[in-house]
Every structure is written in structure tokens, then in C-alpha cells.
Backbone:
């Protein structure tokens, strides 16, 4: 009973307090494609991902009702950096869907406009607005509608104390006449957030505290929760204290923001609790410690990047790496260890794949190189007597195709398949299969298919443990027959560590470029984006992989990516190019679809 | 396919087709012609390669033999072949042979699309021998000074496997074409269609906005040809947004999601009147 009253009260107070229009809400997930295209079309960087952004604290005065309901404490404002364009997950601040929709478009346009970095927040927003209005009349019309709605939303100005009213007036002038306000009058309270502008900058140059434990990669695997909101983050030192909850003041949720790494072994629904708590925080402090929440939740954090001035390595097989910030190809950045996997028990094709094997053999037999006789050709070695007789009998002057020609339909092709064997492939898809099982079966059927078409092929797998140990597993080299030994190696693949994609692609490129065939296909089989346990994540990994693929293309190879990552459309177009990848919606279909895909792209 | 269908034999027109030079390409082309050197033009779709060749042919007073290459175009489509009629067989020249015999520019558009055996024919013509051996008739034609070979291709990486071999590429004087500068493109749109300056400016802004999404959202950037087409529709009274949808957006993608998103960009530039 008590609980029901509580719920009813919560609903009532929320409805009264809300300045939002949930019925007219527009979600980012629904319009991320147009927002992304508009962002890039108006000058935004291609490598920047479009994401739902975390909120910041609203320091402005809230009404009594709002304080009672606990609403409007957080506000979602857009911001952009070199990693991501962060937009509110849902916009429902304006009374019509059209306006909420247009706010997304406006924020995308505003974030796409580049200005010199030294300008203040106030000047940047006004100048960018002015530029857009000048250049894009359609956006100008949208802006006028949004300003009217925003000013209406901000409420009557005459109820504010004089200093706040003066500040508010300046903001409204800046909105109406961008560029007209150079200094915002001071007021004791913070002004209401301006939804049409980008978020004031957050600190991004925090220093990185020393790292305590190094080798922890293997422990951080278990569950990953799909949680795509980015949250503001900073590094702090973890106090050396066993009972983490001691500092927790129960009356204040703010304490969460102090130390969120608490004893998580004991609780049952720890991840959910943490996710919820994370939403309540304004800044998540991560400790550089054994297991941390970000890894556990697999959420994107706005971490200030540690300066990565790593010395070049000098032993083993060295490969360069691309640093997008300095736009340089740093030599000798990672060591690749080729692992031959020779000590493996040979095995036959698993029983349950035999039927598929038979079917593929029938289907792909047609792709074998054969000599074809072509009828009705304009030239050739023999006369097509049927065509000639038809010509004589019809007295058809224009008909001139009466030759037979023989032509070899050759497939002068080699293919290197590179499979991602990182730890993420241990995730379960469906009830009885992990990603790694799907990849294993795909490798089996792929190899069976290419044995039928007589195309040259090689199979490799890769994983990485930081830049010193990129593992390149040889499953089948080009000059090796597809035998039970190879099947044994495929059977023996197991997930390990991370995905340093750039290095693996460079190594594969080297191997494939030595093949003398006319067409050379580099097929990448993966389940996620490039990452590793060091600075190789986010934009760095993506740009390095992109660079590695550009190098591969320059060598005349044709890269193609097959992924089971449902979010891959966010980054793969940038890495591989619009038409050079495919996302398999149901991972379990991959083994059957891979050979068909192969036939399609090598046609 | 009969030879007349693949080759258009244009006689030198009296009026120069309109062409706004981007740089010094006209001068280079003329020098190449004077020195009997073949020319290779590379650039994206719809950036004015074909128009440039037409302009140069008219300027130099040469006949233009244009061949649009496709993946089934063989050497004999260029050189010629024996045909049969009621009285026996007879030989017909292909467009390349005709250009060599009578002088003029032979322009092979999108040359990388042609079958590999065509390069053999081009090699002997494009180095200092300048000969065209026709093995079917036993002739060897020597190219006159008025003969010029011009080829073009689109070097986008999606065509990388079909790229020209270095041995072929290094026989040509090369001109790289890009999309025109905004000011020049506005002039082109106005002079081709007669739309007013504001419309032309918006169309060029749109084209450049869409070009910056190419490779990520679009396979191919929109060329000047597309915006000229849209301008033509607008000039005869079609509303700008509709013209952009029909002449630009729908030509760039078949995916409803992408075309819808591209229309957002169109609407960002053209205000609803």
C-alpha cells in the first residue's frame, strides 16, 4: 500500500513538474542516419561517431515542483570532439515532434561547423550559428522556429531577480541576433541551459595516474551489457581502502560520483545497479585498478587520453602504426608474432557440417574454370552454321554474328581470410553457440567451398595483447593443401585477448601481396571494432585500421569485411568504405552465408 | 552490336562547345597534340572530361570519334572486322582505324572498362611508333600528325582492380580533373542552364555538401552534370527541392533511408518558400 501511494505520488509530481512533452518525443536512434549524413555533409569529420551523450548537471534554479519531483536535475546538451558527436538520446523539450526533430538537425549542423579553437563558448556558438544561417537558408528557417520555441520554453523573464533577468536577456539577444553579445552579464545563479547551443567545454587534459596492475586483460571478459550512452569520465586515484562503502553518504546520490568502484563481488544485480548509478552521476571516476566498472559495463567513456609517447620496439617482426592526431605513420610500433599451430591433432570435418559441405560442392562446382562455347559471336574460330543459315534465309543485312568462339572462364583469384580471435568472440549468440563457434564453422565451410572452386586461399586468425604481442595464427598458408591437419587447426582455434586490427591487416597484406594472381581478396571476419588494452581504442584504432586498409588497396588488394557486430554501421563505412562490408544480422547464419557472399563478391 | 552503334562519328562542329578551363589543361592538350603525344584524362564521374575533349576537338578543328568502353568491348570493336553480305565478305573499319586513316581524335571513354586485349592495340599507337597493325587485313597503318589518342578513366578505388597497368599508363600525358571550384561551378551552372545566381549557388553548396559524404554514405560523389540537370529542371519551373530529389538525390542512392537523409541536406540548403 505504502509503495503504491509512493508510485502514484511520483507519477503525479512528475507530470506536474515536467517541462517536457513525452508524446512528442523524438529519439536519436530513429534519425541517426539523416543526422549523421547532415553532419558530414555540412563539414563534420567522417571518423566521428554519432552517439547518445551523457548529461551534465543543471545548476540553474529549478521550480519547487521540479525539485520535489527530482526532475530537470540533469540536462542533455550536445557536444562534439574528435571521437564522437554526442547528442541527447531523446529530445522532448519542445511541444511538437517537428521542433524536436529539427533540434537534432540543428545540433548536427552546429557541431559540423568548424571554428578556430581559441574562441570562448559564447563566441563559438554565436559565430557558428551565424555561419550556418548565412550558408544554408533551409537551416536558417529551422533556426528561427527553434529560437522562438526555445525562448517560449525559457519562461517569462520578469519573474527573475534583476541580475538573472539581465543575463537571460543577453542570452535571448544572442539567440535572436547571433554575434551581438560578446560578454554574458554575471548572475549569482547559473542560467538555464541553452538547448540550441553546444555544451560548454569539459576538462579533457587530466593527467593519467600511475597504473598499478598490468596484466588483467583476461579477467575482464565475462558479461558485457549493451549500454551505449557515453559518460563524462576522469581518472582519479583509488584510495587504498578495503571497505569501499565507508565514504558513502546514503542521503546523497552525489556520493556515487566520488567512488563508484565498490565491492562488487557480493551483490547479485551489480551491473544493473551500477548502470543506473552511472546514469545518476555527472562524472564517473575510474580508478586504474584491477577490475573497473567501465570495462564491466562495456560503456564508452569520455576518458582524457593518456599521452602515448611509446618508444619503438626493436626485436621480432615490426610493423608501423598510424597516429591520426599527428597524421604520421610511426615505424616499428607493434611486434607481430606468427604462430604456426603445428602441434595440433588432425581431425576430419565435423559430422554436422557434412550436409552443408555436399550442398556447397554442388553449388560451387559451377564456378570451376571451364572452357565455354559461345554461340552467335561477331568473331571466333568456327562458323556458327545455324546463325549463317538464318542470315541467308532472312536476307538480313545487319545480322553479322555467325561465329563460334571458345573462351576460358578463368578465375585468377587468391583470397586470404583473416578471422578475429579476440576474447569478445567468446560471447554467446543464441542458446548453444558462441561467436567463436560460428567463426569456426564458417572457416570450415569456407575452406570446403574454395577447395571446390579451385581458388587459391589462405586462412589466418589474429588476436593481440598490446602492441608488443600481436598474434597472427597460421591456419592454412597459400601453398598448403586443405587437409585434416588444417581442419585440426581450425578446430583448435580459441578466443584470446584483444583486436589490434591494423597490425593484423598489415601482416595479412604482406602475405597476400606476394600472390601473383590478378585479383587478390582480403576477407576480414570480425565481431567488433578495433581495440586493445592500451591507447589502441576508439578513434585511434579505427583510424589505424582505416590506414592499413588504404595501404592494402594501394598494393592492389581488395579488402572486404564481414561482421556480426550489429552496431558496425557506425564505424565500418569509415574504415572500409560504403560498399565494402556486410553486417550479418543473425550470427548463426554466417557459416552458410559466407560462401554465398564469397561467390557474390568474386563474380 | 554494330560498329555504328558504339562509335559516334561527330564532324568538327562550327561552334565551340562551352567549356570553362580550370587550369592550364587547354595549353597542355595543345602541346601534346603538336608533339603527337596521347593524352590520358582521369577524374570522377561528371566532372567535365567528355566536354573538355569535345571542346578541344572543336578548337583544334579535328573530327572526334568517341567510344564509350564497356566490359565486352574487344580489340576488333575498335579496329574493325569482316562482315558478310549476300555477295561475300567485306571489311569495315572500327572507330580507331577510321581515326587513324582519316585523322582526328579517337576518344576512349572509361578505357579501364574495356577488355584486356584492347591495350595491345593501344600500345603500338601510343608510343613513338604510332602504328596500327591490322592482322585481319594484313595492313599496318601509320598514324598521321592529325591523329590523336585520348583515353579517360575514373580512378576511384572501387575500380582499383580495373586500374590501368603502369606500362599502359606511362605512355600518356596525363591530366587530372577534379570537381570545379565553387565559383567556377556556379558560372558553369548559370551558363549551361540560365538559372539565377542564388539557385546556382545553392546547388553548388549542395553538391559540395554531398561530395563530403562520399565514400562514407555514398559510393560516388555527385558530378557537375547532376547539378546542371537539376538546374535545368528548376529553370523550366520545377520547384528546387523536387528537382534536387529527382535529378540528384535519387541518382546517388537506391536505399530509401539514405535518400531520405540526403533530402534533409537538400532541405537544409533550400528553404521552403
Residues:
Amino acid at each position: 500500500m505504502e509503495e503504491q501511494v509512493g508510485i502514484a505520488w511520483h507519477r503525479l509530481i512528475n507530470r506536474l513538474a515536467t517541462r517536457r512533452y513525452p508524446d512528442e518525443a523524438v529519439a536519436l536512434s530513429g534519425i541517426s542516419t539523416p543526422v549523421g549524413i547532415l553532419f558530414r555533409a555540412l563539414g563534420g569529420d567522417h571518423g566521428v561517431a554519432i552517439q547518445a551523450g551523457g548529461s551534465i548537471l543543471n545548476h540553474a534554479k529549478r521550480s519547487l515542483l521540479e525539485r520535489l519531483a527530482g526532475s530537470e536535475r540533469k540536462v542533455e546538451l550536445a557536444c562534439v570532439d574528435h571521437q564522437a558527436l554526442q547528442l541527447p538520446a531523446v529530445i522532448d523539450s519542445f511541444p511538437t515532434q517537428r521542433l524536436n526533430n529539427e533540434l537534432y538537425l540543428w545540433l548536427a549542423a552546429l557541431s559540423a561547423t568548424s571554428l578556430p579553437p581559441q574562441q570562448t563558448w559564447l563566441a563559438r556558438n554565436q559565430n557558428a550559428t551565424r555561419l550556418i544561417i548565412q550558408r544554408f537558408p533551409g537551416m536558417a528557417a529551422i533556426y528561427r522556429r527553434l529560437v522562438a520555441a526555445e525562448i517560449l520554453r525559457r519562461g517569462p523573464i520578469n519573474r527573475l531577480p534583476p541580475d538573472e533577468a539581465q543575463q537571460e536577456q543577453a542570452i535571448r539577444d544572442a539567440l535572436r541576433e547571433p554575434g551581438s553579445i560578446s560578454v554574458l552579464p554575471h548572475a549569482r545563479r547559473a542560467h538555464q541551459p541553452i538547448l540550441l547551443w553546444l555544451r560548454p567545454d569539459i576538462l579533457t587534459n587530466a593527467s593519467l595516474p600511475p597504473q598499478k596492475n598490468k596484466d588483467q586483460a583476461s579477467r575482464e571478459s565475462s558479461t558485457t551489457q549493451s549500454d551505449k550512452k557515453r559518460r563524462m569520465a576522469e581518472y582519479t586515484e583509488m584510495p587504498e581502502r578495503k571497505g569501499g562503502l565507508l565514504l558513502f553518504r546514503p542521503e546523497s546520490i552525489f556520493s556515487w560520483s566520488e567512488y563508484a568502484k565498490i565491492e562488487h563481488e557480493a551483490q547479485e544485480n551489480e551491473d544493473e545497479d551500477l548502470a543506473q548509478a552511472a546514469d545518476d552521476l555527472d562524472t564517473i571516476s575510474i580508478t586504474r585498478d584491477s577490475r573497473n566498472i567501465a570495462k564491466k559495463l562495456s560503456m564508452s567513456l569520455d576518458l582524457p587520453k593518456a599521452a602515448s609517447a611509446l618508444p619503438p620496439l626493436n626485436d621480432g617482426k615490426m610493423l608501423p602504426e598510424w597516429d591520426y592526431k599527428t597524421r604520421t605513420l610511426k615505424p616499428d610500433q607493434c611486434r607481430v608474432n606468427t604462430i604456426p599451430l603445428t602441434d595440433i591433432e588432425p581431425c576430419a570435418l565435423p559430422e554436422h557440417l557434412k550436409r552443408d559441405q555436399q550442398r556447397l560442392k554442388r553449388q560451387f562446382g559451377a564456378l570451376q574454370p571451364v572452357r565455354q562455347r559461345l554461340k552467335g559471336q561477331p568473331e571466333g574460330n568456327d562458323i556458327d552454321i545455324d546463325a549463317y543459315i538464318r542470315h541467308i534465309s532472312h536476307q538480313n543485312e545487319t545480322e553479322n554474328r555467325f561465329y563460334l568462339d571458345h573462351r576460358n572462364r578463368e578465375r585468377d583469384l587468391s583470397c586470404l581470410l583473416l578471422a578475429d580471435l579476440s576474447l569478445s568472440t567468446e560471447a554467446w549468440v543464441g542458446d548453444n553457440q558462441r561467436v567463436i563457434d560460428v567463426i569456426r564453422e564458417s572457416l570450415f565451410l569456407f575452406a570446403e567451398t574454395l577447395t571446390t572452386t579451385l581458388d587459391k586461399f589462405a586462412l589466418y586468425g589474429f588476436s593481440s595483447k598490446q602492441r608488443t604481442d600481436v598474434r597472427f595464427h597460421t591456419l592454412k598458408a597459400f601453398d598448403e593443401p586443405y587437409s585434416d591437419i588444417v581442419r585440426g587447426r581450425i578446430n583448435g582455434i580459441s578466443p584470446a585477448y584483444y583486436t589490434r586490427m591494423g597490425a593484423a591487416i598489415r601482416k595479412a597484406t604482406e602475405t597476400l601481396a606476394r600472390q601473383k594472381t590478378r585479383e587478390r581478396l582480403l576477407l576480414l571476419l570480425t565481431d567488433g571494432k578495433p581495440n586493445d588494452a592500451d591507447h589502441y581504442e576508439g578513434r585511434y584504432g579505427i583510424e589505424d585500421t582505416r590506414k592499413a586498409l588504404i595501404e592494402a588497396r594501394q598494393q592492389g588488394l581488395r579488402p572486404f569485411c564481414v561482421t556480426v557486430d550489429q552496431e558496425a554501421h557506425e564505424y565500418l563505412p569509415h574504415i572500409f568504405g560504403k560498399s565494402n562490408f556486410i553486417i550479418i544480422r543473425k550470427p548463426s547464419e554466417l557459416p552458410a552465408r559466407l560462401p554465398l557472399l564469397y561467390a557474390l563478391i568474386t563474380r | 552490336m554494330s560498329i555504328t552503334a558504339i562509335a559516334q562519328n561527330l564532324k568538327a562542329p562550327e561552334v565551340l562547345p562551352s567549356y570553362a578551363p580550370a587550369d592550364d589543361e587547354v595549353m597542355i592538350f595543345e602541346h601534346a597534340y603538336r608533339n603527337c603525344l596521347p593524352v590520358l584524362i582521369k577524374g570522377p564521374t561528371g566532372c567535365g572530361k567528355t566536354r573538355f575533349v569535345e571542346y578541344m576537338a572543336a578548337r583544334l578543328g579535328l573530327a572526334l570519334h568517341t567510344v564509350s568502353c564497356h566490359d565486352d568491348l574487344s580489340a576488333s570493336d575498335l579496329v574493325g572486322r569482316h562482315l558478310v553480305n549476300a555477295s561475300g565478305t567485306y571489311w569495315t573499319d572500327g572507330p580507331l582505324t577510321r581515326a587513324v586513316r582519316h585523322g582526328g581524335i579517337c576518344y576512349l571513354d572509361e578505357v579501364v572498362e574495356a577488355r584486356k586485349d584492347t591495350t595491345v592495340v593501344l600500345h603500338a599507337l601510343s608510343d613513338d611508333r604510332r602504328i596500327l597493325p591490322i592482322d585481319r587485313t594484313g595492313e599496318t597503318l601509320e598514324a598521321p600528325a592529325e591523329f590523336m589518342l585520348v583515353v579517360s578513366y575514373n580512378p576511384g578505388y572501387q575500380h582499383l582492380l580495373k586500374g590501368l597497368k603502369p606500362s599502359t599508363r606511362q605512355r600518356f600525358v596525363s591530366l587530372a580533373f577534379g570537381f570545379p571550384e565553387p565559383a567556377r561551378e556556379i558560372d558553369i551552372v548559370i551558363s549551361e542552364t540560365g538559372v539565377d545566381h542564388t539557385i546556382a549557388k545553392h546547388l553548388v553548396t549542395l553538391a559540395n555538401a554531398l561530395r563530403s559524404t562520399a565514400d562514407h554514405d555514398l559510393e560516388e560523389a555527385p558530378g557537375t552534370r547532376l547539378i546542371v540537370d537539376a538546374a535545368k529542371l528548376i529553370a523550366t519551373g520545377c520547384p528546387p527541392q523536387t528537382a534536387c530529389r529527382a535529378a540528384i538525390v535519387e541518382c546517388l542512392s537506391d536505399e530509401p533511408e539514405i535518400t531520405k537523409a540526403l533530402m534533409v541536406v537538400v532541405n537544409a540548403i533550400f528553404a521552403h518558400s
